[in-house]
Amino acid sequence: MGDVLAGFHAAWEFESDSVLIRYERGIRTPKLFQALGARRVPLAALEGVTLAAGRRGTVVLRAEPRPGADPLMDAADGQLKEGCDPYRLVLPAERGTLAEYYADELRAHLTGSGPADRHLVAPPAAPLQFKAYDGKASFDGTAVRFRWSWTGASSAKWKAGDRIFPVADLGGVEWRSPELFEGHLRLLPREPGAAAAQPPQPDQDPAAVVFGLGYGPVHESLPFAAAVLAAVRSASPPAPVTVPAPH
What we know:
5 helices
């Protein structure tokens, strides 16, 4: 294909095996898009394309990522607001016919469906960091570090001390949007037995940092969570293959 379709806040460049999405950096552009900058989405990471009428004389072209193909969407777990969905391209209604053409072209090139067995979209690149309400989180690609705040951290976290979590010891991440009640980022242990049956509240858990007004915003904490999740998945050993016994 090789063509470019420009909409509000983003432009999609169609290539033979991928879609390159470039996000604008204007003041009206969602901060998450600005933080992402650009993303190359392989066609193998997509399972569908939709085109629908939008608000106020617009149409919305949306690519549907396969479950497990994009660490950002895996970490978000359905919590992103519609306006911050990086797979939506909003265009003026007069470009509806053009958008329909590209939607058909994309569909014709899609071959994958169902959950992906690995991440196909590159994660945000480390190093990354953000300030939470009760501490500072940083990730260098190999380990996550939590440094507790003098003013925000609970006594339980102060007693535990600053923490370092090597990726090899992690089994996943739990991101709860700061725009929801009790927003936080929690690191999950790799060993099943290391996880408590009932994990403590995030403000009492040394494996979690708590969000708050101005702390852990989506555009900082979600790319962070996605980068950690991708590193954890990459470090995970492949699932064992069971070979049936000969009869």
